[in-house]
Amino acid sequence: MDWSDWSAFALISMVTIVTPGPGNMNTTRRAAQLGLLRVFPGILGNTLGLGLVGTICAAGLVTFVLQSGLLWNMLHWLAAGYLAWLGLRFILKNEAIEPTGNLTPGVSGKFLFGEAFLLAFSNPKAILYFTALLPQFVNPARLLAPQMAIMLLTCCAISVASQTVYSTLASLLRTHLHTPNRFFVFRAVSGFILLAFAGKLVLGF
Fold first, then answer.
1. What is the rounded average pLDDT of the residues 180-204?
2. How confident is residue 119, by pLDDT bands cut at 50, 70 and 90?
3. Helix H or strand E segment including 134
């Protein structure tokens, strides 16, 4: 893969991944609640979910899904439903900031990992992103697997960096969100943003 092609791919990916979305919103909320160090299982889960979607797309399996209206609609509604559930959970569930950074019951590292993984893996926008972008930067005269690996690793690295920055900023704001009322407002706003993303999926935006 040429340096110029990789640079262009990395720049496009950076703009797409860094833009606030469901994954970044979820990580930001968890960092504000638990602190920077405690959200790394979630960052790992989001990155692995994104990498798995990219691998499936690179393997060509996504073509079958896109050609099947039923499977695509199922995935579309599953993603919208999960975003809506997560948004309502942000708004309705009574959660508090942990001043010590200790995980509260039900917010284990395993839970954070699974929550973020499902959010990334069920996002149909990621499928469309990889399906549309990866073929544009493939050189047919070279081996396919190394090129795909470079691009997928680039996306994963950008995702880790992006979510780490979001988490750091959210962690720094913890002192301003320390009261129950302020953290409730923060969670409610995050939840409504996720509900808006779910609505966009339902409406096909």
1. 72
2. confident
3. none
CB-neighbour burial class of residue 47 (10 A; exposed 0-12, middle 13-18, buried 19+): buried
CA distance 36 to 39: 6
Is 66 in contact with 131 (CB distance < 8 Å)? yes
Token code pair at residue 38 = 């405690």
Number of neighbours of residue 185 by Cβ within 10 angstroms: 12
How confident is the model at residue 178, as a pLDDT? 60
Amino acid at position 120, single letter? A
Q: For residue 101, give the 3-state DSSP assignment.
A: coil
d(CA 97, CA 69): 43
Task: Tokens for 81, please give them.
Answer: 């439903």
What are the DSSP E strand ranges found in 8-96?
none
* Segment 46-85, tens digit of pLDDT: 999 999 988 888 777 556 655 666 766 776 677 677 667 7
CB neighbour class for 49 (10 Å; exposed up to 12, middle 13-18, buried from 19): buried
Tokens of residue 182, six digits: 């302020």
